[in-house]
């Protein structure tokens, strides 16, 4: 059995993250990938919301922490 996550699932989740919008707060309507890093770090310290938004913010935190924002360049207009 393969222990690696399904790459097609990862690609779909990444694509979804690229288009996911903040549903509330100061940045309501902004793409998650456009959120300022300090805001994402604040969420990390406070605890991410439950559900899909929390998962997406957690992934975004890891991407920003590791300087991988360039991966979203193909999704920008």
Can you describe this structure?
The N and C termini lie far apart (40 Å). The model has no long low-confidence stretch (mean pLDDT 87). With 77 residues, the chain is an all-alpha fold. The chain has 3 helices and no strands. Helix 2 (37-46) crosses helix 3 (52-65). It has one domain (8-67).
Provide a compact summary of the structure.
By secondary structure, this protein is mainly alpha-helical. The chain has helices spanning 7-19, 37-46, 52-65. The protein is globular, with a radius of gyration of 13 Å.
Task: Kindly list the characteristics that best describe this protein.
single chain; 77 residues; mainly alpha; 48% helix
Which descriptor suits the 3D outline?
globular
Portion in beta strands: under 5%
Give the radius of gyration: 13 Å
Count the DSSP helices.
Answer: 3
Mean pLDDT: 87
By oligomeric state, this entry counts as: single chain
Helix proportion of residues, in percent? 40-55%
Q: Low-confidence runs (pLDDT<50, min 5 residues)?
A: none
Largest sheet: none
The end-to-end span amounts to: 40 Å
Q: Structurally, how many domains make up the residues? A: 1
């Amino acid at each position: 059995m393969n222990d690696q996550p399904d790459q097609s699932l990862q690609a779909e989740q990444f694509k979804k993250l690229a288009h996911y919008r903040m549903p509330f707060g100061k940045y309501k309507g902004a793409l998650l990938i456009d959120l300022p890093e300090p805001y994402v770090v604040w969420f990390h310290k406070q605890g991410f919301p439950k559900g899909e938004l929390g998962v997406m913010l957690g992934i975004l935190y890891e991407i920003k922490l590791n300087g991988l924002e360039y991966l979203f360049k193909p999704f920008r207009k």
